[in-house]
Amino acid sequence: MTKFKISNVNLWYNDFQALHSISMDIESNSITALIGPSGCGKSTLLKSLNRMNDLVEGCKITGEFLLDGEDIYGKIDINMLRKRVGMVFQKPNPFPMSIYENIAFGPRTHGIKAKSKLDQVVEKSLRDAAIWDEVKDRLKRSAFSLSGGQQQRLCIARTLSVSPDVLLMDEPTSALDPISTAKIEDLVTELGKEYTVIIVTHNMQQATRISNKTAFFLLGEMVEYDDTESLFSMPRDKRCEDYITGRFG
């Protein structure tokens, strides 16, 4: 089933066109990787999916983004959109508060006040982000007391705490060591069974390990989009083949 339908999307930052005629269907309960060299439009597209680009001055978008058939650039409540489409950034960005409060913050904002209910949400979110066992005895401690890899899993838990449909991940492991990276990859693989995950990665091996589908971007154009296995084993476009075989990028 299609979760996001992207049709003929063009995006400009003032006079610079960052995306050219992007059309793709992103399936529910799957992991879609966006790969390509720096500055090719991957993160720009990702940020359009929960309207983070609204915050950029001089940004203009044409085309259509449908989430479960609803136009996200139409009459939609932006706060509700960002609840449904959560974002995890490149660098962990915990709030300057306790581990518990980091997770409880979103649900409180959306009206959950009872402590017993918040306790349940905090535990479930931390369990789903595979970090509960590491932090359950120190929930009152600052989130900054955690390692980088733990902070990133905390940020994933914080995103899960408001029950999103879609998880956007912008190079979530690029600032992490190999062991933390492996933990996040295992986590993303699990999350892909329940959520629609769209991940930007520079790491092609990561794309092959965790994603169901991969899109290759170059200079703002989506050159190729296919099942991950097919794209990496039999790319149809010479530019894609050159990139994944290391001839450029």
Describe this structure in words.
The protein has one domain (2-244): Rossmann fold. It has ten helices and ten strands. The strands form two sheets. A six-stranded mixed beta sheet has the order 6-7-8-3-9-10, with helices on both faces. Strands 2-1-4-5 form a four-stranded antiparallel beta sheet, with no helix packed on it. Helix 3 (99-109) crosses helix 4, helix 3 (99-109) packs parallel to helix 6 and helix 4 crosses helix 6 (148-160). By secondary structure, the protein is of the alpha/beta class.
- Per CATH, the class reads Alpha Beta
- Please tally the β strands and state the result: 10
Order of helices and strands: EEEHEEHEHHHHEHEHEEHH
Indicate the percent of residues in helices. 25-40%
Quickly count the helices.
Answer: 10
CATH topology: Rossmann fold
Number of domains: 1
Secondary structure elements and their pairing?
Elements: E1 2-13, E2 16-27, E3 31-35, H1 42-48, E4 59-67, E5 70-71, H2 78-84, E6 85-88, H3 99-109, H4 115-128, H5 132-135, H6 148-160, E7 166-170, H7 178-191, E8 196-200, H8 204-210, E9 213-218, E10 221-227, H9 228-233, H10 238-244
Parallel strand pairs: 3-8, 3-9, 6-7, 7-8
Antiparallel strand pairs: 1-2, 1-4, 4-5, 9-10
List keywords for this structure.
Rossmann fold; 249 residues; 4-stranded antiparallel beta sheet; globular; 36% helix; 10 strands; alpha/beta; 27% strand
Concise structural overview:
With 249 residues, the chain is an alpha/beta fold.
